[in-house]
Amino acid sequence: MTELVIKNLDITVAIPTYNGEERLPKVLEGLRSQIGVEHLKWEIIIVDNNSTDDTAKLIHSYQASWDDEFPLMHFLESEQGAAFARLRAVREAKGEYIVFLDDDNLPAPDLLKESYIFGKQHPQAGAWSGQIHGDYQVNPPKNFERIQAFLAIREHGNKPFLFAPDNLILPPAACLVVRKQAWNENVPTRPTLTGKLPGVLVQGDDYEPLLYIHKAGWQIWYNPSMHTYHQIPNWRLEKDYLLKLARGCGLCICQLRLLNAKNWQKPIVFVRTILGNLRRVLQHLIKYRGRLQSDLIVLFEIEFYWSSMMSPFYYLKKSIR
Q1: Mean pLDDT of the chain, nearest integer
Q2: Is residue 197 scored above 80 in pLDDT?
Q3: Total Cβ atoms within 10 A of residue 33
Q4: What is the pLDDT of residues 155-182, one digit of tens each?
Q5: Which of 54, 174, 249, 275 is 20 to 30 A from 147, alpha carbon to alpha carbon?
């Protein structure tokens, strides 16, 4: 096990995981194979969010034979939820930049090099993400590209651009680089959205920190030179999972829009969220009336719009508890 103690690093790779025993080896081998990092000081942090499989045993076996120049660290975060795992990773990270990487998202060989170069070239960037390609176990359904962003598949072309946080156009945390300074100075220590939990489908936990960072004046960028490959097993393309995903992504919409809203703006957010998504639901019902039961992509979109429309009521119900 590596026991290097270095206070200041260039990069921390943070991998939140839950029951990642089978997925982590590919990610770790991909990080071991990084190129162009000879002059970088970096570390890997794995945050185990209460796994019930042999994730901890797997990590310890890697640590026992770890002879690489960069440390491999392991922390247990007992508070359930991806948001808490990310917060723990930030607390433990020693890097100027933190590269969040999901345990099923495989890095290209030059991911860290390109992440670091972009950060140095864009000092006003508080966060940046890249191209996340889908690596599918089975072929996705027809027209899947219309909803692939909900599964953290992001292929926006080969030119950098600024995201639009005010319109909730943001990158996912599946592969996301944040400047530690921007996070520490602006992201609260307790999240509003925790991420998926047993019985809790609401998502949006990866967008919440970015909205705080954006509010403080930092830029959020798309960097097409960064590439990762998201492993999509067959069950994530099944109807039941996709509709639950659509519902969870929709129910957080109002809450996300309220994060940076002033008190006088909140009633406007409520009304616009309800009416805007009601219009989308009705347009879909009219446009696809002959395909509502047979087209999975249409069903997904309607479920997302309907859940987004209901998100103000979900927020009020949650606030009363």
Answers
A1: 94
A2: no
A3: 10
A4: 999 999 999 999 999 999 999 999 999 9
A5: 275
